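Revision sheet: structure tokens.
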Amino acid sequence: MRRVSRIAVAGAATAALALTVSACGSSSTESAGSGKSKGVGLAYDVGGKGDQSFNDAAYAGFQKAEKDFGVGGRDVEPQDNESDADKVQRLETLAKAGYNPVIGVGFAYAPAVKEAAAKYPKITFGIIDDNTIQAKNVADLVFHEEESSYLAGVSAAKTTKKNHIGFIGGVDVPLIHKFEAGYIQGAKSVNPNIKVETQYLTQTAQEGGFSSPDKGENAANGQIDAGADVIYHAAGLSGQGVIKAAATHKVWAIGVDSDQYDQSALAAYKQYILTSALKNVSGAVYDLAKSVIKDNKPLSGEIRGSLANGGVGLADSNPVFKDNADLQAALKKAEQGIKDGSIKVKTS
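Predicted:
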């Protein structure tokens, strides 16, 4: 996966992802570090594998861990309208079968990870996008999404021809507010008078905000009709609809989590994907697996990816984006300001 040359996004194997890590949790008799793990257990968020975004990034780390460490693994899809009890059962089934670590992809797994981790203290659990679980055998894998979103906002403001851009969030929750806040702040740093359309697809994940491309497409069509010519989505699988609408109307889309310009399922629309705001979910999954399976020193506590440690950044696969010297200069300046603290990025 390629990256903006001026934004050092770490490869999947980087240990630098960990900005703050608490004392490691203890390994177990089932631990891969003792040679007895069956590999990584991965439980997907809504939208599942094939979203070309968040879940697929986790799967990439899962696949790399399988290959590099010579272990098996099991990845499990979510079900429609499932309960926390369903998630608990999924995680416990993986733990009982000998998978270690067991990772819940998405903040919706927080209650389930908390419960399963308490029942299986010798198994290391990971959760992506939640830092509320305080347990010796849990790694909270989180990111400064607002930082990469700020850069996405700079990109949108430097690219729009109408001084009118859009943001579409999948679900109206604090995590997605971080994407919106950073994006708007970055755009207004370029043009304080820029107009920004904002919309959330649903109030809850159960309503399909992260898993409904039709909702994303309808929302994007509305923003484009209103005049927006660059739209950034933080909507998981629903973002495919946003990208489709942008391509149909020949305006720019900005992807999220994975490099969506390079996703085969989106190849028909790629010339309209300006860039993607990345977070190294694949690296987070891989690093946790490595800590358990290879190092026998399981990570635990909060592990947060940022611009400074390569955990977030922008993709540069689109030559139109990469070769825009004015835009790249603006991004370099913004990145440096975030890193040195002269730019404080908002989270809400």
